[in-house]
Write a structure and sequence with these properties.
The protein has 261 residues and is an alpha+beta fold. It is built from six helices and 13 strands. The radius of gyration is 49 Å and the shape is globular.
Length: 261
């Protein structure tokens, strides 16, 4: 009898001491889902009958969680890489050589037989001599072993044909143009006004290169009108495509012999 009274007193003392316990130990019993498991709660049936609640679990007060605003991560910029299959462009001072697609378009503007090519050519002229056949509209750069490098050219229109032998006395890259007075007079008669002087450049009718012939006003020069190659349209000068005159310019030195037939 005395033992039962002692046990009851201990139980009653525990009931009064439980509410005074600090909250931290109770929270230590919290499970993964935020509830206190039934088997870890002291006297679940007695606690629920005295303080109310479910006999299985008691949900502790929800803890507020701080919201952390993370700074946006900086995006990594991709290092520049050259594009593949990009057509190469050759810079030649004031003008760009045509890229592959543009070059193909330019090649279609004149007949294939007027494009530069090595051909058989029998002549008594020494290698390095330039021979211009105004009838066939070909310029030949004589080579050894009966061969020549042939270019299509534009020649003087009717009334401006000429023939003779000269030497290359000067070479110029992107030459300027000073139209002679006779040319300006002819242009005025046709309602056109020519400039007194035009600096070298892509818009200059002298083109990319010029080879001056003796003391004459005639030149072998480039053209910004490649579609006129193979025709008789000039005032006596021999015109070539810019690509072709650049090639010839690099092969021919000052003093080279030029024969126009």
């Amino acid at each position: 009898m005395k033992l039962r009274i002692l046990v009851s007193a201990c139980l009653l003392a525990g009931l009064f001491l439980v509410p005074a316990l600090p909250a931290a130990p109770a929270l230590a019993l919290e499970g993964r889902d935020g509830n206190i498991p039934n088997h870890q709660m002291p006297f679940p049936r007695l606690m629920n009958s005295l303080f109310g609640g479910n006999a299985e679990t008691v949900r502790p007060p929800q803890r507020s969680r701080a919201v952390i605003n993370r700074a946006p991560q900086p995006q990594m910029q991709r290092a520049w890489q050259p594009q593949r299959n990009q057509p190469a462009v050759r810079q030649d001072r004031n003008v760009r050589q045509a890229s592959a697609p543009a070059a193909n378009a330019a090649r279609q503007q004149i007949a294939p037989h007027l494009l530069p090519q090595v051909v058989s050519y029998q002549t008594s002229q020494a290698p390095g001599t330039i021979v211009i056949d105004t009838n066939t509209r070909y310029l030949y750069l004589v080579m050894a072993n009966g061969q020549a490098r042939r270019y299509g050219v534009g020649v003087g229109r009717p009334g401006f044909e000429w023939a003779g032998t000269h030497r290359v006395t000067r070479k110029a890259e992107w030459p300027s143009w000073t139209p002679p007075e006779t040319m300006k007079a002819r242009a005025r008669a046709q309602g056109q006004i020519l400039p007194d002087f035009m600096p070298g450049g892509p818009d200059n009718p002298m083109g990319a290169r010029a080879l001056y012939l003796g003391s004459t006003l005639y030149r072998i020069h480039g053209s910004n009108e490649p579609w006129t190659i193979g025709q008789a349209v000039s005032s006596g000068c021999i015109r070539m495509r810019n690509q072709d005159v650049i090639d010839l310019y690099e092969r021919v030195p000052v003093g080279a012999k030029v024969v126009v037939i």
